[in-house]
Hints:
Layout (H helix, E strand, L loop, with lengths): L1 H11 L4 H19 L7 H9 L11 H4 L3 H9 L7 H13 L5 H20 L10 H9 L7 H15 L3 H9 L2 H10 L5 H15 L17 H4 L4 H6 L8 H8 L5 H8 L6 H11 L8
Amino acid sequence: xxxxxxxxxxxxxxxxxxxxxxxxxxxxxxxxxxxxxxxxxxxxxxxxxxxxxxxxxxxxxxxxxxxxxxxxxxxxxxxxxxxxxxxxxxxxxxxxxxxxxxxxxxxxxxxxxxxxxxxxxxxxxxxxxxxxxxxxxxxxxxxxxxxxxxxxxxxxxxxxxxxxxxxxxxxxxxxxxxxxxxxxxxxxxxxxxxxxxxxxxxxxxxxxxxxxxxxxxxxxxxxxxxxxxxxxxxxxxxxxxxxxxxxxxxxxxxxxxxxxxxxxxxxxxxxxxxxxxxxxxxxxxxxxxxxxx
Length: 293
């Protein structure tokens, strides 16, 4: 796995579009192997998959299955170190792409990079802490500028959600960099496409949800690696379901930077007049399955 990561990182660090594209495909292939069930195929099945590309792809692994997957365990542990962290390489690649002239090929590479960042942030939640840094959060806000095409703006909004999930510190960075002004200005602009505006509304619903600190970590055990236990997501539960009472001290410190729906409603109300309607709708419909009191 290290050899494949090393090869993809070399390509991602290039300024050549062809090499960057190759590096992105290599990362995508690795993540696909981890997330898709690897059932053996006969020669006839392989031939049919080429002839009939619309056939149903291999089933995706459910979250609970990942805990028993040795490849995923190894991948997860590697992500804790700087040397093999995929999110860091992708964000640095995004930085180089932002410095290039705008053209169709470069836009496609930016979208592919954003898609992979979304995936790695969901697979390895501790990598979300990268976006507590202003430099990396600014990259996402820059991509929401009107100069970028709607496809990039839409992909960026989804990436922003992945970066903020269960990470209140990142949300505070987003707010400090006038992220709400960027979002609402794009929403109110007549030049913004309908598709992007729909995604912006979904983001505002997400933003207004009550915040909770990251899930407490478990104490290190021989059977469960410490990095997996530190995951602020359901992934930790996939490896150790008895981890609910540990890590209270860290949770208490994180609760100091969380905000309620009312507090965020006040902040958003500086830039948008219809926030009360959004909150009322959020309370009635609970679109994300959450509860707004």
